[in-house]
Design brief:
Largest sheet: 10 strands, antiparallel
Oligomer: single chain
Distance between the termini: 41 Å
Low-confidence stretches: 1-32
Number of domains: 1
Structural class: alpha+beta
Strand content: 25-35%
Length: 218
Amino acid sequence: MLSFPVNSRLATTLVVAILVWGAIPPRATMADSALPDSVKALLPAGSTPGEGSWETFETEFGTTFGGGLAVTEFPGKKPSCAFGLTTEFSFDLQGDSAFDEPPMLDMALQQFQTDIENSHAGMSQFVTDYVKPLPDIVSVGTVQKEKLAGGEVVYVDMVENCASHPNGAKTMMRGSINRGATRLSFQLVASQDAATAKAVAAEIFKNFEALDIKALIP
């Protein structure tokens, strides 16, 4: 059996890592509540949020918090072809105060970057398997990854053609931004070109930069 010198920093790191993998922590409490208004305010102009959900999970090491929602109305929801890619918009916010300092913060940031890389590969495969074969899709661009307004987006633009949206632009996008260990991510499929979708992403990221994260922790 391997043994390591024990110090308080390492002990905290190991215990928090166990929490990440689902062990039941000591003195833990969970609370469900409505999505905070400040989180709903992250949405771009012209959007109508659904009810969403919000949870906080307190331990002796910190507070895990997060939630998300599906957006019911948003610019670019219509028009859309019935046999094209369905328009949708959803986002979630996740954070953990126990991860806001190294070495746990370094681990969280590495995971964020891995998620972005996986998102690019996953979207490329999704486009090949499911988007290109759709009857109303007439052309599809190349999946792009781009740093934008402090965050990152992965997106692909396409053109669909039907009576309700003749030769219409559509963009599928996934975006994420973080401040420390708190991360906002979203998924968007909208009847708009890539430049417009990126402007929407930039607005979301700007709103996130103004969010009072500490106020979200009970």
